[in-house]
Design a protein that fits this description.
Pfam families: Arf. This protein is 22% helix and 20% strand. The protein has 163 residues and is α/β, with parallel strands linked by helices. It has a single domain, classed as 3-Layer(aba) Sandwich (Rossmann fold), CATH 3.40.50. The protein binds guanosine-5'-triphosphate (GTP) and magnesium ion. Guanosine-5'-triphosphate binds next to loops.
Length: 163
């Protein structure tokens, strides 16, 4: 796996449904593209790394955890959860994306000690996201865990109304 530069487009076949996936880079320099690519979509999938240690204080889910004035972490320490939560909440607050269903995927659940879906719901403050469908699954891309339920969730949000 190499970091996504800009975006990639893939079509994924799932049963009778073809899912057109826009995979957008997560690095800071690509985040201003997110809203544009999310307009008019059937669903937004936001992938987080559940192997990153959770913040020690369950209430401090945003902001830098290191000294005052330091930049928010982009690395693999627990401050990355705060960055992810802030970025997700900023994205879904965009008026153009009102009502778009959101699926948060907590990947790397094959790593020992990975955060559970419930922990990710708490640290990402998903219960604060209103007026849209919000789901969260713990998955492993590496071991193909819960990829089937993920595809079913996406198919059920297809414009053709597979529900
Ligand atoms: N153990 C494990 N590693 C994973 C899993 N999914 C991804 N990785 C690894 O995590 C690293 C980052 O994966 P990427 O798919 O490039 O992450 P990304 O979020 O697309 O990153 P950007 O493209 O920069 O946004 C790679 O080294 C992957 O091999 C997983 O389910 N389990
Ligand atoms: Mg990528």
């Amino acid at each position: 796996m190499i970091p996504t530069v800009g975006f990639n487009m893939r079509k994924v076949q799932a049963g009778n449904t073809t899912i057109k996936v826009w995979d957008i880079g997560g690095q800071a320099r690509f985040r201003n593209m997110w809203e544009r690519y999310c307009r008019g979509v059937s669903a937004i999938v936001f992938v987080v790394d559940s192997s990153i240690p959770l913040p020690s204080s369950s209430t401090s889910s945003s902001g830098p955890s290191t000294g005052a004035g330091s930049a928010p972490s982009e690395g693999n320490d627990s401050a990355a959860w705060g960055v992810a939560a802030e970025e997700l909440h900023a994205l879904v607050s965009r008026p153009m994306l009102a009502g778009v269903p959101l699926l948060v995927l907590a990947t790397k659940n094959d790593v020992q000690g990975a955060a559970s879906a419930e922990e990710v719901i708490r640290v990402m403050r998903l219960e604060q996201i209103a007026a849209r469908e919000v789901s969260c699954y713990s998955i492993s891309s590496k071991r193909q865990v819960n990829i089937d339920v993920t595809l079913r969730w996406l198919c059920a949000r297809s414009p053709a109304g597979a529900r």
